[in-house]
Amino acid sequence: MTKPRKPGQTTIGAPGDDDAALFRQAVGPVRRLESTPLPPATPRPKPRARMKEQDEIDAREAFRRGGDTPWLEAGDLLSYRRDSLPARSWLRLRRGEISAQEELDLHGTDARTAEALLRAFLADARRHGIGCVRVVHGKGLHGDGTPVLKNLVDRLLRHRSDVLAFHSAPAAQGGTGAVVVLLAPPGRR
Hints:
Region (Disordered): 1-20, 28-54
Number of helices: 5
Number of strands: 5
InterPro entries: Smr_dom, Smr_dom_sf
CATH architecture of the domain at 74-183: 2-Layer Sandwich
Domain Smr: 104-184
Protein name: SMR domain protein
Pfam family, one: Smr
Mean pLDDT: 82
C-alpha cells in the first residue's frame, strides 16, 4: 500500500513503482468522455460502369459505320421481310399497294440526328397504332457519293423487333430515296 502524497511531492525513481501507476497518480481521477458522432461524410459517388458505357458508344459508332456489311449505293433497293409476314402482305408492300399513314423526312440531317429522329418516329408510330410509315432518306447524291442516311436507315430497320418488313417506295412516292415500313401491331413484336 502506498502512502498518500502531499501536493508537490514527487516520487520518481522510487524502487518498485511502475510507470503506469506513476502516470495514473500524476493524471488524477479521470472520467470517460461521451463519444460525439462524427460529422457526416460527403457521400461517395455511385460506381459507374465506365467500360460498359464505352462499349455501348463503340457499338453505336460501329453500327453507324456499318461494320462488316457492304454499303448500299444510291440506286440500290432497300428490302427486308421477316419470316412471320405472310407472302401476300410482302407482295402488296413491294407493289406499293399499302399506303403509309405517316412520313418522316430525314433530308439535311446528320447521321446522329437522323438516328435519333428515326427511333423516336418509329416508337411514336407504334405507340399510336400506326401500321405503315414512309421514311424519306434521300439517295445520297449530294455528298461524297455514299448514301449515309440510306445505309443508316437500312441497318436500323433491320435490327428493330417491331419492324415486320420494309421495301423501297414506288417511284411516285420517292423510289430508292424513300422506304415504306410495315410495323408490328402494338401488342405483338
